[in-house]
Amino acid sequence: MTDPLFDGDDEANTPLTEEEREQLIPTYITLRSELNEAEQINITEASRWYGRKRKADILDDALLKELHKQMFGQVWKWAGKYRQSPRNIGIDAYRIPTEMRQLVDNVRFWVENETYPPDEIAVRFSHQLVSIHPFPNGNGRHSRMAGDYLAIQLEQAIFTWGRTSLTDASATRKAYITALQAADGGDIEPLLKFARD
């Protein structure tokens, strides 16, 4: 199984597989372009939902699950639920709940002790969240939105994340993947730069 982030074959007219369609809520969706559009509408609504939360603390594993549900809950049956199956990236599924709580605790420590500058805390949070890969899909978008909300919570501007869609095989997407891989290897600088580019 490949991850769509690294696959690069996300053409608008690509039909969804039968397995993908089984988990869809809207029955009209048959093409990836239709799926992308429905997900984007749902993500926009999730952004409004979070805006109404007024000072909600994003460093809460239950809120992170709810954010994912708000982002994808009108499109996918599994939205907001941790994955139960293995992926070619991310940790073993049985470790997800523990690692999510540990991540939140670690980031709270960084914030309280000013371990890193605010931007770096938010980018490290986003990177570690996507590295856990807690959900069946939507992990990149979820982790970037969570990183943005942490930046706001830390009184910073939201990130630009390359200023374009990362759902296609663009140069921006490739730069994002390269920055993620550098962060995986311990070099956070390219991802910090990408987040503010």
Characterization of the model:
The protein is an all-alpha fold. It has a single domain (11-159), classed as Fic-like fold (Orthogonal Bundle), CATH 1.10.3290.10. It is 56% helix and 0% strand. Residues 1-10 have low confidence and may be disordered.
What attributes characterize this protein structure?
56% helix; 197 residues; 9 helices; Fic-like fold; mainly alpha; single chain; disordered N terminus
Helix-strand makeup class? mainly alpha
The overall number of domains is 1
Residue stretches low in confidence (pLDDT < 50, at least 5 long) are 1-10
**Rg computed from alpha carbons, rounded to a whole number of angstroms:** 16 Å
Give the DSSP E fraction (strand runs of 2 or more residues): under 5%
Proportion of residues in helical segments: 55-70%
Q: What is the H/E string?
A: HHHHHHHHH
The fourth-level CATH homologous superfamily is Fido-like domain
- CATH topology description: Fic-like fold
Overall mean pLDDT score?
Answer: 90
CATH class: Mainly Alpha
Helix segment tally = 9
Beta strands, count? 0
CATH architecture classification: Orthogonal Bundle
Largest sheet: none
Q: Please tell me what the overall shape is.
A: globular
The N- and C-terminal alpha carbons lie at a distance of 31 Å
Short overview:
56% of the residues lie in helices and 0% in strands. It has 9 helices and no strands.
What is the topological layout?
Elements: H1 4-7, H2 18-22, H3 32-51, H4 61-72, H5 96-113, H6 118-132, H7 139-153, H8 171-184, H9 189-196
